[in-house]
Amino acid sequence: MDTRVRSAVKAIRQRLDMQQRDLAKAIGVSRQTLSSIEAGDTVPSTQIALALARELQCRVEDIFSLRGHGQVIDAELVREVDREPSDARRARVSLGWVGERWVARLLETDEALALGTPADGIASLAKEKGRVRARVRALRDLESLHRNLLVAGCDPALGLLGRHLEERFHGPRLHWIEKASRPALEELALGRVHMAGMHLLGDSRVDENAVAVRARFGTLPMVLVTLASWEQGFVSRTGGKYKTVAELERKGTRVIAREAGAGAQELLESLFREAGRELKKVVPVAVARGHRAVAQMVAMGVGDVGVATRSAAASFGLHFEPLAEARFDLVFPATLASDSRVQALLECLSNARFRQDLGGMTGYRTARTGEEPTGAQA
After folding, report:
1. Which CATH number fits domain 69-146: 2.40.340, 3.30.2420, 2.40.128, 2.60.120?
2. CATH fold group of domain 149-378
3. CATH dotted code for 5-65
4. Of 311, 328, 156, the residue nearest 227 (C-alpha)
5. If you average pLDDT over residues 166-171, what whole number do you get?
6. CB 312 within 8 A of CB 295
7. Which of 48, 105, 110, 207 makes the best surface tag, with the fewest CB within 10 Å?
């Protein structure tokens, strides 16, 4: 691996219309030394690098990088949707070092979440012994890629957590992979992500999140940590029209469902059982991936009602009829508890600024953020 340093000092300085002599004076070095730094022939001390970042109004990692960018990585490919990419020769991917191997997750170009995610590399795809492998030309250095955290879950607050994590520690990048609760747990079990996020129906007598983890992982030590609690309920354009499952059975009612394994769908199934009714008699007009997708479909008139969070309803100006409170937990193997990336994430969860920001989101409660629920560690 090429460990020489690539310098962007000159390019950034010129973009700011700054003279070399002025920058050299501001950071306390000679023009000759600055010229050598700009050429990549001299690696500056930490003090000078920080001074450059201050004067150039950017981060140190924006100025210096290893020339090892562009290294080719062999990775196992994971698709987020069941279809082939439009161009198997140039597919955008995120990368994570999981279970002593590289995992590449395809960033589908027609999904908003993927469009807002900078790719870790550009991959060419090929089938190998029945599995699709990715040969990825890295867009970031290997050290940075090794700090990536792959987290599957349905809570949009994972995106917020990722931004706080990157800002606070200038390091690990959290790649949020939108998955319903049980599919997210399965991704963790298959070793495709570092963490899974889940919210399954529970009451005062049983913690379904912990039960599901124990059922899937058996005696393997696992850790659950709460991200937040929030309300789930019926979202609709007509205020107060849908309050019970009986209204969903009315003729002509168009219901937006969630995929199998989603906490919202399991809540709906539970409500039908408690009412002595059968959900299978309600044929949905569409199945949505995620709470915001449910609210968006209702807002667009694709359906009349669905189950989503209060936050999702507020985002699209919809009526919200509360049904239950859900606790969204992050789960990961206990062997990762001492990992520096996980430690940074846990510290971020306990940070007052993050908790205040998260608590400002409609419908979110942060009283238990960062805590391990009772009996959460198996």
Report:
1. 2.40.340
2. D-Maltodextrin-Binding Protein; domain 2 (3.40.190)
3. 1.10.260.40
4. 328
5. 82
6. yes
7. 110
